[in-house]
Write a structure and sequence with these properties.
20 helices; 46 strands; single chain; elongated
Length: 915
């Protein structure tokens, strides 16, 4: 039974429990309980077929997409939670290889990936002709794989199912609904509870290129090994054949059963390319099948919706490619060595012309597509002129437009046609190679001037640090040549060896990107990123887009799951992997937004890294000090503890709840301090040790920024030993607990051989200009925050001493404490004792007479004799402090009230129209 939604339904008796894909209820009855689509495996009650909301068949789904968007698939793996394939609708076994889209909730068997419908959510829809007030974003519905307990937004009843692909979720706002209830929901999407921090797609632009989406957003592209093609029997010139087909051996028993049923398996090639690549498929038909029925069966398997009258069959193994005709086409097929028959499906070459569809893409028209008649003389320019008339753009100049050819197989690829190319020739040539590709090919009418240009930015990293602009230009031009010369360069991040170059033409920018990606300078491959562009005018005034940075290596690689979740919940262009260029690319993309927030997923070192980059780019940004929230993934996470974000993320919190916490968080100031180190010249002429992160000036002076604490002596020595062990065996340091155990082992070794005994003899301390007499000690710690060493409180919890004020991290004061040894250090970390309070002040000066280990915010090194000065920094940091979570029920109630208001508004509008 054919269906208007493309389904081929047949009544079926299910011998195992089966569920309706429309209402999710069990199919009851002894025989013929439901209807089954032989194309896409859709199952439904007889009564449900008459209800609205039946999803289109997979054979028709691709043709219904207005603007195809390629999925961004992960590498093949195994999914722990039960999911259903969005292609074949069957369950994905936990042992089976599968893939998932990194941008939307699309799941597929590894074998079904090539048949995925290119309907990923559009994350960059900026158009220069539209105003913010005219933007209305529609829901992007994805069928199936809803979270357990999901409730319909319209009828407030459960709509989830684990046994079948049923129910719908909006990929933007996250609301869920039954298939039949979607029509009751207002079409406009407000991005739900994440609206206040959502980067709207209509504010983002990215050039239309052949660069894969995975490459743009930073998903690692895994090169999969190509499977060895199965050996098949191909006729040789002398009539002999190659080795026996392994597939035929497997099907031997099945063919015997088919023989008894008077049926046969027929191998099908849909074009020359499939024959050369040994890429065939098999259909089962009666032996006395008619030609039209055989063609219809093949078209159904290929998901081709055209009439069977447009095609014919030829003998695949016959020498003269004989055309197969009635009354019995299979009888006349050449069989090689007892192999099953093989046929070619061919498109009839109509010399008088044909019909082609032209889509308007994002042009301002309500017409989904137009159908234009073409012949062998019709050029792409002729098709543009005729399409403009059909779309109502009669006053537009055809030279301002271009015609693009889109292929929807294995993603979305685009090619711009020359004005003199013949569309009919293109169709027929593709049909000769592959009829499936011909079905998935489209023509799109677009403005010639890319609305995402002319400023196309490439971020270049891994260059030498602190070179001149002329030197950087010379290095790049060595690889680019004059054909790919950039129009401007800058900004240049000298201390990081990174910069941005600009192009005004998409093809040139893409060619430059590929040239630089294979380039190597000083034995380092260059890092090259194609960056999106954000128009701040298109960001609503009440929205503070969230810029997310994830250190995927922190926290035992918990960042990998977090970054995948955030890309699905937010716009992927606001989520950046710090392992792919660090914070600078994201800060550059957000540089024109006046008010935004940052979420840093990592440890204290990662937060310091982001804040340091903010210091360097602040003068070039509209928002110089955006507030920063934290998802603690490191080992210590002391700053996260102080700001109430927790001791460490363990995966128990849903990522959407983390984002809700960011929305509700309150701003708070964090004092920051400048550490100036004046090195004394060594009498022995040996070089002074300099940490890798900061260079030294000509007068032997270094400057650092301190956010958390500064240590001298035993704690810095332990930190240095830990870092050396991690650099030697990094594979041992892949979990938070393992890191703490290793830190304990290092401390136990230091008890036997104290490295910093009588430290006070080589240290002179001044606080606010006053000399401080030091007791016997092995370590000094200068605190800006009250958490240290994974949550310890060196200063103590209560301040009963009159000479000391109650400290905090925004009072402009530093706290100085002393540690007497490794045992004392361990007692502080376990909470048994506190450190010895030494002093409080706004300005600290330390003179070292000997070399001693020091550390700033967890970065240790051995510091030689010299003077260290810690003073208030002019650099500012605004942080976000987590507040107590409100009840999620209150949020749900607010959304329900808003939904009812929308329904009433829609009802009133409909009522007035009826009147």
């Amino acid at each position: 039974m054919a269906d208007c939604r493309g389904h081929q339904f047949t009544k079926k008796t299910f011998h195992l429990p089966a569920y309706c894909h429309n209402c999710t209820n069990l199919l009851w009855g002894v025989v013929t309980q439901g209807n089954f689509c032989t194309v896409c495996n859709y199952i439904a009650h007889e009564s449900c077929l008459k209800k609205p909301g039946i999803s289109p068949c997979h054979s028709l789904a691709a043709s219904l997409i207005k603007n195809p968007v390629s999925h961004c698939f992960s590498k093949k793996g195994r999914i722990k939670n039960q999911r259903c394939c969005n292609v074949c609708r069957k369950r994905i076994d936990s042992r089976a290889l599968s893939v998932t889209c990194e941008v939307c909730h699309y799941y597929a068997h590894a074998d079904c990936k090539s048949s995925a419908v290119a309907d990923c959510k559009e994350i960059a829809t900026y158009h220069p002709g539209k105003l913010l007030d005219s933007m209305h974003h529609e829901h992007h519905w994805r069928e199936g794989n809803l979270r357990p307990g999901a409730v319909c937004y319209a009828c407030v009843k459960p709509c989830w199912a684990t046994d079948c692909l049923a129910g719908y979720r909006c990929e933007w706002c996250g609301i869920t609904a039954h298939a039949t209830c979607r029509s009751q929901i207002p079409y406009e999407c407000d991005f739900g509870v994440l609206g206040p921090i959502y980067l709207p797609p209509h504010a983002v632009s990215i050039p239309r290129t052949e660069v894969p989406m995975e490459s743009i957003i930073g998903v690692p592209i895994i090169k999969e090994e190509k499977p060895t093609p199965p050996s098949i029997s191909v006729e040789l010139s002398n009539g002999e054949s190659k080795t026996k087909n392994a597939e035929d051996e497997e099907m031997f028993e099945a063919e015997k059963k088919l023989e008894e049923k008077n049926e046969e398996l027929v191998k099908v090639y849909d074009g020359d390319a499939s024959y050369l690549k040994h890429n065939s498929f098999t259909v089962k038909v009666p032996k006395a099948v008619k030609t039209e029925t055989l063609i219809s069966t093949i078209l159904q398997s290929l998901n081709i919706s055209q009439s069977a009258e447009n095609f014919y069959l030829t003998d695949a193994y016959g020498l003269n490619a004989q055309v197969l005709e009635d009354p019995n086409p299979i009888k006349n097929v050449t069989r090689l060595g007892g192999k099953k028959p093989a046929v070619f499906l061919r498109l009839k070459q109509d010399s008088h012309g044909g019909l082609v569809r032209v889509y308007p893409g994002r042009l301002q028209t309500d017409i989904p597509f137009c159908v234009v008649s073409v012949d062998r003389n019709t050029t792409a320019k002729d098709l543009i002129v005729e399409s403009l008339t059909r779309f109502g753009f009669t006053s537009h100049n055809s030279t301002d437009y271009r015609l693009s050819q889109l292929l929807l197989e294995h993603g979305v690829t685009e090619r711009v046609l020359d004005f003199d190319e013949k569309p009919l020739n293109i169709i027929q040539n593709i049909g000769q190679e592959s009829l499936r590709q011909m079905e998935l090919m489209r023509f799109y009418l677009q403005l010639k001037q890319d609305p995402h240009g002319p400023n196309i930015a490439l971020y270049i990293g891994n260059l030498p640090k602190n070179l001149s602009q002329r030197r950087y230009e010379n290095i790049l031009m060595t690889f680019l040549g004059e054909d790919c010369r950039f129009i401007t360069i800058g900004p240049i991040y000298y201390e990081y060896g990174s910069l941005v170059i600009m192009y005004n033409e998409t093809n040139t920018a893409v060619n430059a990107m590929y040239l630089l990606r294979v380039a190597e300078y000083e034995r380092k491959h260059l890092l090259v990123l194609l960056l999106p562009n954000i128009d701040p005018v298109m960001v609503p005034a009440e929205t503070q887009p969230l810029l997310v940075f994830v250190n995927v290596k922190s926290g035992g690689c918990q960042g990998l799951s977090l970054i995948s979740s955030f890309r699905k919940l937010l716009n992927p262009y606001q989520v950046f992997d710090l392992g792919n260029g660090g914070p600078l690319p994201g800060l550059y993309v957000f540089r024109h937004i006046r008010d935004y927030k940052i979420l840093v997923c990592g440890g204290d070192g990662t937060i310091g890294w982001v804040l340091q980059c903010l210091d360097n780019v602040g003068q070039d940004s509209e928002c110089s000090s955006p507030p920063c929230a934290i998802v603690p993934l490191g080992t210590g996470n002391d700053l996260a503890r102080v700001l109430k974000w927790g001791a460490g993320y363990n995966g128990s919190d849903e990522p959407i709840h983390l984002l809700e916490d960011v929305i509700e968080a309150e701003k708070i100031r964090l004092d920051r301090w400048t550490v100036v180190i004046h090195h004394e010249d060594r009498a022995d002429g040996r070089p002074i040790h300099v940490p890798n992160s900061v260079g030294m000036s000509e007068d032997n002076t270094q400057m650092f920024v301190m956010n958390n604490y500064f240590g001298i002596g035993i704690d810095a020595d332990l930190c240095l030993a830990f870092h050396k062990a991690r650099e030697k065996n990094p594979e041992r340091f892949n979990s938070r607990i393992g890191n703490k155990i290793e830190y304990l082992n290092v401390g136990l070794r230091k008890i036997i051989h104290p490295p910093c005994k009588n430290l006070q003899q080589g240290v002179r301390l001044e606080v606010d200009g006053k000399l401080v007499v030091l007791p016997q000690l092995e370590g000094l710690i200068i605190l800006n925050i009250l958490s240290w060493g994974s949550g310890a409180k060196p200063w103590g919890r209560n301040c009963n001493e009159e000479q000391f004020a109650t400290p905090n991290h925004w009072d402009g004061m530093l706290e100085v404490v002393a540690v007497s040894g490794v045992v004392h250090l361990g007692q502080i970390q376990t909470g048994l004792r506190y450190a010895k309070r030494i002093s409080q002040g706004e300005h600290v000066k330390i003179h070292l007479t000997n070399g001693v280990p020091v550390q700033i915010d967890g970065e240790p090194w051995v510091q030689g004799p010299g003077e260290l000065v810690i003073l208030k920094s002019a650099l500012k940091a605004t942080m976000l402090k987590k507040v107590k979570r409100t009840e999620r029920k209150q949020t749900s109630r607010t959304r329900a009230v808003k939904y009812m208001a929308n329904l009433q508004a829609v009802a009133s509008v409909n009522g007035s129209e009826n009147e």
